[in-house]
Write a structure and sequence with these properties.
Elements lengths: L1 H20 L6 E12 L3 E12 L2 H21 L13 E7 L5 E15 L5 H11 L3 E8 L3 H26 L4 E16 L8 E2 L17 E13 L1
Antiparallel strand pairs: 1-8, 2-4, 2-5, 3-4, 5-7, 6-8
Length: about 230
């Protein structure tokens, strides 16, 4: 008798999961929301490039060192702390000439200087002075804000509220209500640093400091976040 009861209990436990598998999943709604926050810029992040050529690798490296010293001294004279001017490594590459039978004809040395300018009214002056001191390319000019993390959090909150509001409206339109949050994901779709001049990879060449506008007006920082949610409704 005891063996028969154990067999019935085993059969009941075995059938229960199979019975559950046949149940239909609850209906769900998907919704997404966007949050946009705009912040005033409070500093500018600049990346300047330097490039020199020489017939010997040691000469190219020496000329690059002199050029970087010139740019650094100029920036320090404008009030930028010397220890806030990190430079990337000096890249030294041989350049060949097809006309010379693929022989090395010159050695090219390149490097980058990264600058943060906290007085936005002096961005144009800093750029012009650095170019006059020997900088040969302007890689980037990005307006930034020290409140970007705070702005992202606010954009995330706004996007989440919009996504959940849309999900609730869709559920109510079907005579239902939100029951359980199944998933939520977020994507920072853009962090825009507005520029009023195109600078990325700009070569100065013989145009020199005259290439830099006398006045550069910062616009601002835009932070956009998208949130997608999935809710069970019933």
């Amino acid at each position: 008798m005891k063996s028969f009861s154990a067999f019935i209990l085993f059969l009941a436990l075995s059938v229960a999961p199979l019975h559950g598998q046949g149940a239909s999943s609850p209906p769900v709604v998907h919704a997404s929301g966007n949050g946009l926050v705009e912040l005033p810029a409070d500093h500018a992040a600049l990346v300047l490039g330097a490039e020199v050529e020489a017939s010997r690798p040691d000469s190219a490296a020496l000329r690059m060192g002199v050029l970087l010293d010139s740019v650094t001294d100029t920036l320090v004279s404008l009030g930028i702390p010397r220890d806030s001017l990190p430079t990337s490594r000096i890249d030294l590459r041989p350049r060949t000439s097809v006309a010379g039978g693929d022989r090395v004809t010159v050695y090219q040395a390149t490097s980058l200087v990264r600058i943060r300018v906290w007085d936005l009214e002096r961005v144009g002056e800093v750029l012009s002075s650095a170019v006059a001191a020997g900088a040969t390319t302007i890689e980037t000019l990005d307006y930034r804000s020290t409140r970007e993390r705070e702005g992202r959090d606010e954009a995330l909150r706004l996007a989440t509220e919009e996504a959940n509001r849309d999900a609730r409206i869709m559920a109510e339109a079907q005579g239902m209500q939100l029951m359980r949050l199944v998933s939520a994901t977020s994507t920072r779709s853009s962090v825009g640093f507005d520029r009023n001049i195109v600078l990325r990879g700009a070569s100065i060449g013989s145009r020199g400091a005259d290439f830099i506008p006398a006045e550069i007006v910062p616009i601002g920082v835009s932070i956009s976040v998208q949130v997608s949610v999935e809710w069970e409704i019933g």
